[in-house]
Every structure is written in C-alpha cells, then in structure tokens.
Amino acid sequence: MVDTPVADQDLPQLIPLAPPGSSPLETVPTNEAAAIATIADLIESRIREAAKTGPAIRDAHPKAHGCVSATLRILDGLPDPLAQGLFALPRTYPCWVRFSNGSGTPQGDKIGDGRGMAIKVMDVDHSRSKTQDFILINNPVFFVRNASDYVAFQSANKPLHFFLPSLNPFRFRLHEMFAALGITRRKVNNPVDAQYWSMTPYLMGSLACKFSCRPNSPVSPFSDRSSTNFLHDNLVATLNAGDVVFEFCVQLRSDAKKMPIEDPTITWREQVSPFVPVAHLTIAKQHFDTPERIAFGEALSFSPWHGLDAHRPLGGINRVRRTVYDTISKLRHDLTNTPRVEPTGQ
Q: Left, alpha or beta for 199 (phi > 0: left; psi -120 to 50: alpha)?
C-alpha cells in the first residue's frame, strides 16, 4: 500500500443515479434537483469565503484524528442476500480509514460532536473509481430528512434556528433536534471504541440495507480526556501499542413501513432486523502521526458514490451528497492546487 496517489486523473468516477422512475425503492421529489443545486451553491460560497483567510478545508469533518491503513477481509460462507457486490466472494482488500469530528469548525474534542469513520476500500474490480467508500458516523440516524430541509439547515444563521425557525410550534423540528442531540451527547474517549453507522440506506444487490462498523477488540486502555485533541492522542497511543479489529456489518431492510428509505432520521431498529457481520476491518499496529500521512489524509476525497452499482446509495440525503461531495472535492483541490485522485493499494 502506498501513500502517494498514482496519477492525476479525472476522478472520482461516481455510481450513476437511477434513471427517473426506475428505482422502486426511492421517491424523488419534483423540487429536489433545485434544492440540491442551492445547497451546493451555499456550501461552495462558504468554502470560497473561508479560503480567503485560511486553507480550503472540508465543510464537514475537517478535523481528522488520523488517517490509518487497514485491511477489510470479507467473510466466507455469507448467505445469498449478503453475498453481494463487494461481499460476494471472500477476499482481503487494502483500505484507508479516516477518523474525524463532524463540526465544520475544528474544535476541542471535549465539545459534543459527531465522530466520523470514513473507509476507502481499494482495488475494487468493476468500480468506476476502483474504490468503495463507506461514510459512517457514531449515531444510527441523521438530523435532516430531505433536500428541502437541508436547504433550510444550510441557510440558518445558527443550528437552533433550523430546529426552531419561528415562534409557531407547528414549525418546530423537535424530532430532528432530538436526533442532533443524540449525536452530540454521545461520549467517545477513543475513536476505536465507538460504533459507527451509515445512517442512510444503500443497495445490497437488489435489497436495501444500512451499514455499521462496531469494535471487535477489547476496549482500549487509552482513554485520557485531558488534552484538547485527546481523540487523536488516544488513537496514536492505541495503534502504537497493537492492532485493532472492527466487525463490518449489514442490516437488511425487512419492513418497508418501519424502515423508510427517504427519511434517515428514523432508526431501523435491530429488533426488526439485526446487523450481521460480513467482514472484519483490521487496523494493524502502525505509526501514522507524520506530516506525510496527515497531508495524504487531507488530500483524500470520500463519497458514498465511489463504489459498485450493487451498493448504490439510496434516498434523498444520499442524492444530495452525490452533487455536494463532488462539488466540494473539486473546489477544495482546486483552491489548494492539489491533484484529485483515488489511491491504489499497489
């Protein structure tokens, strides 16, 4: 595995959207395309404005705790509903894993925040980008329902104004507010001890599913919270000491009413359909806290639309991500004069 991208190419190549009306699992609102364009414009304007006085950074998850090398080993003997796409055959793939904080403004780790785990699987045959990305956070649900609400969130001067936009209680977004509080109130001492979820649904062959990555190693002894960047510090100490293993799991959609596609604020309850392990993600003992690795991690672009058609992202929030993530990636790399390429494991 190398830290240097192989060449400057026109990447990423994204999974195509389903043709209009062709996806029986999805319902696309008529105003969604306009809403997505508005979101992309709002975020692009903010990045350009911030880049006037500092580096061009991600609009979300800009603070990384570490970018680490890993391997994803697909389990043998998976049943047909799970033996799809990347998981069809037992094989081991090289990966990069980036741990991060969600806030668009880098801040101390003691402040409540979403903790992210982005996995880039490399050398994936039949993927247009030759990669398969999984975008995960340490909460099972998101706090925005759809593209229209995302416009309102991005337009709000403060997050509270999105949840309580007026004095009219009929306009309160209390369900979404409690979902956001659920994210920020989760206490994480070490990135390797948290469970992460995709929040949004994806295809698993012809079925819908969600993904999760949960620890499969003993709890790390490194949990000190005294430093501002303790998540980074504890991750460094953990991987200086030994390996870490996660179970990568799939939750198949088994109830259309209780497990909606277009509303990621609704939990798909494990009592209805449990998460089933399909792979082991191993992060081997390593020293990753170097200027070269930090720069490499900052240059990486992650998108749920990097990957196989068998895992096409589903739902409105994922359709927002397709345009917005690509727009941000192109802009960020252009402003930093950095080649935008996908890495390989060779």
A: left
From CA 196, how far away is CA 125, in angstroms rounded?
26
pLDDT at 321 over 60: yes
Reading the block at residue 342, the tokens are 């996908």
The first and second tokens of residue 291, run together, are 């200027």
Give the pLDDT of residue 4.
42
Strands 244-252 and 207-215: antiparallel
Query: How far apart are the C-alpha atoms of 263 and 31, rounded to whole Å?
Result: 16
Q: Please give the mean pLDDT across all residues of the chain.
A: 94
Residue 136 CA to residue 138 CA, distance in Å, equals 7
Residue 12 preceded by cis peptide, ω within 30: yes
Distance separating alpha carbons of residues 109 and 115, to the nearest angstrom: 10
Report the predicted TM-score, pTM, of the whole model to 2 decimal places.
0.95
Q: Is the pLDDT of residue 126 over 70?
A: yes
**Rounded to the nearest 5°, which phi and psi values hold at 18?**
-65, 135
Q: What is the 3-state secondary structure (H, E, C) of the chain?
A: CCCCCCCCCCCCCCCCCCCCCCCCCCCCCCCHHHHHHHHHHHHHHHHHHHCCCCCCCCCCCCEEEEEEEEEEEECCCCCCCCCCHHHCCCCEEEEEEEEEECCCCCCCCCCCCCEEEEEEEECCCCCCCCEEEEEEECCCCCCCCCHHHHHHHHHCCCHHHHHCCCCCHHHCCHHHHHHHHHHHCCCCCCHHHCCEECCCCEEECCEEEEEEEEECCCCCCCCCCCCCCHHHHHHHHHHHHCCEEEEEEEEECCCCCCCCCCCCCCCCCCCCCCCEEEEEEEECCCCCCCHHHHHHHHHCCCCCCCCCHHHCECCHHHHHHHHHHHHHHHHHHHHCCCCCCCCCCC
How far CA 302 is from CA of 11, 26, 97, 292, in Å, comes to 11, 23, 10, 19
Residue 235 has pLDDT above 90, yes or no: yes
Question: For the chain, which domains are there?
Answer: 32-148+179-335 (2.40.180.10)
